[in-house]
Design brief:
With about 70 residues, the protein is mainly alpha-helical. It is about 50% helix and about 0% strand.
Length: about 70
Amino acid sequence: MKKLFAIATATIASAAAATAGSIAYVAPEITRIEEPAPMGGSGIWLIPLIILGVLILSLTGEEPTD
């Protein structure tokens, strides 16, 4: 009976040790690929510049004389 108890204890201990490391799942790391930033920009700064230029030209023009 002691031998049967010793075998059962050893079996349970070895089974617990064998599964101890595989219970927790570790997700693999995801590598991120960054796209390079555009060198020239988007050109959106041109719109306010054009509006400002048109306003300056229209407000500083001389009035025609009759």
